[in-house]
Amino acid sequence: MNVTITPSAVAGTARAPPSKSYTHRAILAAGYADGATVRDALWSADTRATARAVELFGGDVDRADDGTLEIDGFDGRPEVPADVIDCGNSGTTMRLVTAAAALADGTTVLTGDESLRSRPQGPLLEALADLDAEAFSTRGNGQAPLVVPGPLAGGEVSIPGDVSSQYITALLLAGAVTDEGIAIDLETELKSAPYVDITLEMLEDFGVEARKTDAGFEADGGQSYAPAGGEYAVPGDFSSISYPLAAGAIASDEGLRIEGANPSAQGDTAIVEIVERMGADVDWDRDAGVIDVSKAPLSGIEVSVEDTPDLLPTIATLGAVADGDTRITNAEHVRYKETDRVSAMAEELGKMGVETTEREDSLTIHGGESTLEGATVSGRDDHRIIMALALAGLVADGETTVEGADHVDVSFPGFFDLLADLGVDLERDDA
Predict the structure, then answer these.
(1) Which pathway does it serve (predicted)?
(2) Domain limits, the chain
(3) Residue 19, marked binder
């Protein structure tokens, strides 16, 4: 699907979609449990992949009309899947499920789409091997397809922290149900640290004890997953909130309200401060979970995405609108997502007349030297690139067509419906 956006003002109320990060973890945590109810879950292409994995491990995921997930778990001992686990485009699914697969008494095979088969899994495979749980890449390059014979008993392992925090999350989730537990020593500084904070928060909510240590993280063994009252509610997603928040900052004279913005361990709550620092009129009522934002002249800033890689595309679009330079630093790990998001934003914004300077670990957007013009741009089969480019179309001179826009289903299935409800003039072409 291609979407063509005509410059538009936005106004009204937007509701934050549920958190993708929390939903992935909640579905799998309920799988590790005997069972649980997961409320307010995001039902997207990525989270459905995690649900399919739970079912292949012997669990069952039933979605009610109101979106509630009733999950029968595999109680810490996954069955050997009867089929290959297809993780689609979901890197989170592959990494979290790879560690779960190591608990099964037999061989599990995992694969995904072309993009996922190009993303690094090697450090996790090496960590599992160091824990005497056999796991390997069929092509010997640290990338899927993956074969995981297991079994995982637990123990102490070291792993780099600067490739993906999801490796640590995967090991903690699985390690809690092993006999020995798991102790993780970080070989390097941890990137995207708030995502591990999310995991620790989630484990606590499911009755599992895990903690930070001087060397890294650890989880005791022999634990059981069981949320209080058998239920868990997923909070709103600040990665997704970044898009209506940015839309309000660049295209809302009347003001835009965002509901469901309750504080949590998500690092991407930083987007509120970033938009405010750039000059937008922002008020966040944390108790009510409501953000009000309206348009104001924006100025470029310097911001690190070391802990918030998913925000880079949104910040890049804000920088294209702002006066002066916006320098996004500590961004090298953002190149290993669904696409190389650093290059993707530089190249696609370039088609719209935006001047950028790209370095290995940074992206500078020269807003003051740019004229944002409508163009045909590629979404790169990446939900975050698509949504960020759509925002640029709100204020570009002329129409902007985003190709491959259906990939927003990965994290924000109703994104274009929301834009239309907020007053955006857009046309969808399914051809």
Answers:
(1) Metabolic intermediate biosynthesis; chorismate biosynthesis; chorismate from D-erythrose 4-phosphate and phosphoenolpyruvate: step 6/7
(2) 2-17+236-429, 20-233
(3) no
DSSP letter for 407, please. G
Enter the tokens of residue 9.
């003002």
Among candidate residues 98, 92, 100, the one with its CA nearest the CA of residue 116: 92
Q: Establish whether 294 is an annotated binding residue.
A: no
CATH of span 20-233? 3.65.10.10
Token pair in block for residue 285: 């009522």
* Domain 2-17+236-429, CATH: 3.65.10.10
Query: Is 91 part of any known ligand binding site?
Result: yes
Tell me whether residue 77 is annotated as binding: no
Note if the bond before 413 is cis, omega within 30 degrees: no
Q: Strand 2-6 relative to strand 425-429: parallel, antiparallel, unpaired?
A: antiparallel
164 is in an annotated binding site: yes
Q: What DSSP element (H or E) covers 282?
A: strand 281-285
How buried is 229 (Cβ within 10 angstroms: 0-12 exposed, 13-18 middle, 19+ buried)? exposed
Terminal CA-CA length for the chain: 7
Choice among 72, 310, 325, 409 that is catalytic: 310
The yes-or-no verdict on residue 16 having pLDDT over 90 is no
Residue 62 phi, psi dihedral angles, 5° rounding:
-120, 125
Whole-structure pTM value: 0.86
Tokens of 67: 């979106």
Q: What is the pLDDT of residues 251-310, one digit of tens each?
A: 999 999 999 999 989 999 999 999 999 999 999 999 999 999 999 999 999 999 999 999
